[in-house]
Structures are given as structure tokens and as C-alpha cells.
Design goal:
- The protein has helices at about 85-90, 115-125, 140-150, 155-170, 185-195, 215-235, 245-250, and strands at about 40-50, 60-70, 75, 100-105, 105-110, 125-130, 205-210, 235-240, 250-255, 260-265, 270, 295-300, 305-310.
- The protein is α/β, with parallel strands linked by helices.
- It has two domains: about 5-255, 3-Layer(aba) Sandwich (Rossmann fold), CATH 3.40.50; about 285-315, no CATH class.
- The strands form three sheets. Strands 6-7-8-3-9-10-11 form a seven-stranded mixed beta sheet, sandwiched between helices. The chain has a four-stranded antiparallel beta sheet with strand order 2-1-4-5, with helices on one face.
- About 40% of the residues are buried.
């Protein structure tokens, strides 16, 4: 889905065979900053988000710093309630942060009006929400939905139809193209939402649990489609997922714990992430050595630092 809670629309770009200007409607939006052309596709700077009234709110995100390069595929993982979906909604411009700044290809989302944000989602940022039904027009057919997502483009009707049929085939829904979207299963709706989010070849795809209701074969088809979008169009993908195997197939995975990015995995190697206030989230597998509440010493060494329980001699490390 692209367009947020009020309804789907699609981001604009090119399709194979008949290429339009990839993001021809960008002139409708305020200009990007100087870093937009060569900088990261997505950037979060000390982003905080609190739900509820002041003094009685729930802190969902606590100073998120994140940069995603153009064309990169990144998974966001973590336990339920960690703040993963909140981060995706913020980057989609569906909600505003309590503090901090967010950028999409150099454009500061805080400087955009609600109309500008809707245009950004309609033309440049594909969004797939976690609840499959929220991505769709329930009384339209599957084909109608993907055609609807292409409204912002200047493609000829025949080109839109061909693009829609190709995407439905790619997600395994060609045989269901004339079925009403509301009558599809949850997994079929999920795949249809992905087809809609990719209909216009978005510069950025934000996907919240895109395979949560799919079997292994359908999930693999989704990953292949995302890889093809990256290869053919340079699409940047930020995906929220609980599927560790899926996350491992992307370029890297960042873990959100208690509203902060606490860890990152790249090429099979796990790393911790130091927060801007020096905060450090230790991985669960070492908490038997340093349980929560432990008094610890931090010592500088010739090649880094050591973290050990207070009072422990160095030769016992």
C-alpha cells in the first residue's frame, strides 16, 4: 500500500519495456537538501516518539540514529512492542516524531505538509502495512487495486494493465486477478499489497512484516521480487520482520530493543551499537556474565576497551 491509513496510492517510476522518468513528479515536492543527490536514501537523526499525553505517554523510540544507503536492503528486527512499526510509520510520514529529524532522499519530512507527504508516498515511497486489509480497496478486484495504485503515473492504460498483470503474476496472484480483494485470504491480500506498493517502481519501499502470513514458497517469491526491484530500479528496502532467516538474506539487520537500536548484523557477524549517550545493549547470550544491575568497569586497552564485573582482576578475564 502507498498512501497511509486513508487509502492506497502508488509511487511513480518506470516499468520494464516502457520507461518513464523514474521519479518525474518530484517537482511537486519541496527541493531536497544538498545531501539528497548523493547521501543516504533514509536517515533518522535522534528520533524520539512518544504515544499519549505528556507525562502519561509511552515512549516507543528513544533517540534512533539510522542511515540506509540508496539501493540497500535492511531488515529491522526486535521483539513485539520494541518500536519497529513506529519507525516505519515515521519514515512513511504517516505520523510525526515527538523529536528528531527524518530524511527520505535528502528531504526533511518535518518540512513537508500533509499533502506533500501524501504525494511522496504516492510517487516515490511504497508502503506496505502489517495488516493486509489496510493496504487494499476491499471492493475492487486484485487487478483494480494494482491499476488504482498507478493513478499518479502518466502511463497509457494498456501499459498500466500490462504492468498490473505482470506484478500479479510475480506475486502468484494471476489466477485471482478478477477476485474481489476483500474475499482474498490474508496471505493473498499481503501479496496483493506488495504488488500495489511496487506498482510504480518506488525509490524506497517500506514493508512491515511482508511475509508474516505466507508459506515458505510464497515468502521466497516475495524476496525474489524485492531483489529484482533493487536490481532493476535501485529500490531501497527497509523491512520490519520477525523472520530471522528472511533478515539474514538482506544486506544487514538492525535490532531495536526498548526503543533504541541495540545491535546490527552484517554478513553473518553480529555487532552492538553504541548510542549517542554512550548506552550499550549487551546481547542476551552474555548476560550470564554481566546480569542486569551488575556493577561493571570499563577499561581502555591498547586496541579498544574492556568491560568486566567490578573488582575482577585483569588476569582473570
Amino acid at each position: 500500500m502507498t498512501g497511509g491509513p486513508d487509502g492506497p496510492s502508488g509511487p511513480a517510476s518506470s516499468d520494464r519495456g516502457t520507461r518513464a522518468a523514474p521519479h518525474a513528479a518530484e517537482a511537486d515536492l519541496p527541493p531536497q537538501d544538498d545531501a539528497g543527490a548523493s547521501g543516504p536514501a533514509l536517515r533518522c537523526v535522534n528520533v524520539v516518539h512518544v504515544y499519549g499525553a505528556a507525562g502519561a505517554g509511552v515512549v516507543a523510540l528513544r533517540g534512533i540514529d539510522l542511515s540506509v544507503a540508496a539501493g540497500e536492503m535492511v531488515a529491522v528486527v526486535g521483539s513485539s512492542g520494541a518500536g519497529k512499526s513506529t519507525l516505519l510509520w515515521l519514515l512513511a510520514g504517516l505520523i510525526r516524531p515527538t523529536a528528531g529529524r527524518l530524511f527520505v532522499h535528502g528531504r526533511a519530512l518535518g518540512d513537508l505538509s500533509s499533502g506533500d507527504l501524501a504525494s511522496l508516498r504516492a510517487r516515490q515511497v511504497g508502503v506496505l502495512l502489517q495488516n493486509p486489509a489496510r493496504n487494499l480497496l476491499p471492493y475492487g478486484t486484485a487487478l483494480d487495486n494494482v491499476l488504482f495504485a498507478q493513478r499518479p503515473t502518466r502511463r497509457r492504460p494498456a501499459v498500466k494493465s500490462a504492468r498490473s498483470r505482470a506484478l500479479l503474476d510475480a506475486v502468484g496472484l494471476d489466477a485471482q486477478r478478477d477476485r474481489v480483494a476483500g474475499a482474498l485470504s490474508g496471505g493473498e491480500q499481503q501479496r496483493l499489497g506488495l504488488a500495489m506498493a511496487l506498482a510504480n517502481g518506488p525509490a524506497v519501499l517500506l514493508a512491515d512484516e511482508p511475509t508474516s502470513q505466507l508459506d515458505a514458497a510464497s515468502a521466497a517469491r516475495v524476496v525474489d521480487l524485492l531483489q529484482a526491484a533493487r536490481k532493476d530500479l535501485g529500490t531501497t528496502v527497509l523491512m520490519v520482520t520477525h523472520d530471522e532467516a528472511l533478515a539474514a538474506q538482506l544486506d544487514r539487520a538492525v535490532t531495536i530493543r526498548d526503543g533504541r537500536i541495540g545491535a546490527e548484523a552484517r554478513a553473518g557477524q553480529d555487532y552492538v551499537v553504541i548510542g549517542r549517550d554512550g548506552a550499550l545493549h549487551l546481547p542476551p547470550e552474555v548476560l550470564d556474565v554481566l546480569p542486569p544491575g551488575t556493577l561493571a568497569e570499563v577499561r581502555r586497552t591498547s586496541d579498544g576497551i574492556e568491560l568486566r564485573p567490578a573488582g575482577q582482576d585483569g588476569d582473570k578475564a
